[in-house]
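Annex B. Sample input.
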Amino acid sequence: MDAKSDLKLRLPSRHATEGPDRAPHRSFYYAMGLTREQIHQPFVGVATCWNEAAPCNIALMRQAQAVKLGVASAGGTPREFCTITVTDGIAMGHAGMKSSLPSREVIADSVELSVRGHYKSQPGMMMAMCRLNVPSIYIYGGSILPGTFKGMPVTIQDVYEAVGKHSIGTMSDGDLDTLEQNACPSAGACGAQFTANTMATVSEAIGLALPYSAGAPAPYEIRDKFCFLAGEMIMDLIAKNIRPRDIVTRKALENAAAVVAATGGSTNAALHLPAIANECGVKFDLFDVAEVLKKTPYIADLKPSGRYVAKDMFEAGGVPLLMKTLLDHGYLHGDCITVTGRTIAENLKSVKWNPDQAVVWPANKPISATGGRTGNTRKATCWSSATRARRADRVCGKCFQLPRPFMGRAWAARLRSLPTGASPAPLAASASVISGQRRPSAGRSLSFATATSSRWMPSGERSTSS
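Annex B, continued. Sample output.
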């Protein structure tokens, strides 16, 4: 073992890159152009406050490139990311100065969370749009393209499944290595209907994104056209004074939940939609999400439960094709305003059904009658992308009863033992691993809100160190 490898094994980044079970993680790094050597070198975060808000920050991106060159020359692998900043010189003299000191905590938190995880950027951006309530348009960065392995299209889902095959000896080291290097061939978020593509679909259905903009994969040149169009249309929103809270109404949130169900989307949406609603002062909790799921058909044959990825749905007709059939059969509210300045129904008026595709099924002839299901265990809600279990004949791995960081047996038992409506005290525990998740550290409070005296509602997702 060389000195760099020995050093790597003493660093936190080893948890994301080392060993056969980290093949899916490494596949993402290959997608960003890293070599095998770079992946197994120590990772060095290069965090800056670059933005175009003030001259103090404008040079940071250029300087970060020099830092990255220095890290690479010394045998490390630099990974650059940015966080926010507030500049006192421009913030002084008006209410903006109130943001100065709080920005310190946001910067510290965002750097910490960027190092430890991801996939909350989309709901976070939508929440920020609603919180600021200034004319805004949401633009998704796009999904990844599928890779190829032994002549067959593959995604990151195949790499996760390959880890299991490798562990029982049905896949060789060489095949696992080849698969992980080829499953993610481009930039973009996971191609299946995981959290990223689920929330991208939500962005169109809720009205905060331009039609079709959520579907185009990251490498497609048309993404740049959507970005340019958004830049043009934001001026129209300013002129018309259409703001996010004009768009994100109770009906719009129900539309968003409907497309989550219709696509067999990520259960994380059950946390993100209420959080977005909260920014708008709209009551829309986990139980409201569940009500929409129970009555909405599953019609998009998307991975991980189905056969296709986001690229395929975009080429079949995109999110508007999905929304059109839902609208035609009474599963969407057509009178909701959107960032186009028109309603959902007006946006979809010219959308024609595409009979020459198999990704999206007609809403009156669905894959299954419902895209979600609910259960009740002492008033704690369990919600799942039910079709995943139905289509794969296995238990859905995304079912949950509690926010995912708190799924340990001790915490679940503690909740079950509480009388209905009672509020749990903070759970003091060491950072020992339970059921693959860490308990909260000693003294850290767990924040819960009760929608009613008999309903549990998590106020948000929490992260603990890995």
